Amino acid sequence: VVNGGVEAVIDLAIDEPPVVYPRDIVYCRVPLFDSGENPPALLEIAVDLATSCLRREVPVMISCSGGMSRSPAIAAAAVARWRRMLPAEALVDVVAGNASDVSPALWRQIVSLWPPDGTGG
């Protein structure tokens, strides 16, 4: 088990080589761009993976290059789906008290996945 009891890692980095974790760690690499030019299916996969971990109470670490844009954005999207809340509200909760610099283009792309009611349930 990785630091803090993490059992799964969702790696969103695109420019770094994959990290080799111990064999008991679930490792999923979904390389995303901050530019907002991601295939929608990859965004859905990243959000679905993170949401699934939350629903199943699997301790998950979501990582990217600097941990300030893609990681909090995908984490917020997963929290929004899990709690059936607005993505913007979840983003405020996720970044509260932490340094962050979520790419507006990436965030717009993530929010575009939500249905008109905004809850993404």
Major sheet description = 3 strands, parallel
Order of strands side by side in the largest beta sheet?
2-1-3
Number of helices: 4
* Unreliable segments of 5+ consecutive residues: none
* Helical residues, percent: 25-40%
Rg from alpha-carbon coordinates: 13 Å
Euclidean distance between termini CA atoms: 31 Å
Structural class: alpha/beta
Structural shape: globular
| Nearest-integer average pLDDT | 91
Please indicate the percent range of residues in DSSP E strands (runs of 2 or more): 5-15%
User: Would you report the number of β strands?
Assistant: 3
Order of helices and strands: EEHEHHH
Description:
It is a single chain. This protein has 121 residues and is of the alpha/beta class. It has helices at 40-55, 70-83, 87-95, 104-111; strands at 8-11, 26-29, 60-63. Strands 2-1-3 form a 3-stranded parallel β-sheet, covered by helices on one side. It is globular. The relative contact order is 0.18. The mean pLDDT is 91.
Question: Which helices and strands, and how do they pair?
Answer:
Elements: E1 8-11, E2 26-29, H1 40-55, E3 60-63, H2 70-83, H3 87-95, H4 104-111
Helix pairs in contact: 1-2, 2-3, 2-4
In short:
The protein is α/β, with parallel strands linked by helices. The chain has helices at 40-55, 70-83, 87-95, 104-111, and strands spanning 8-11, 26-29, 60-63.
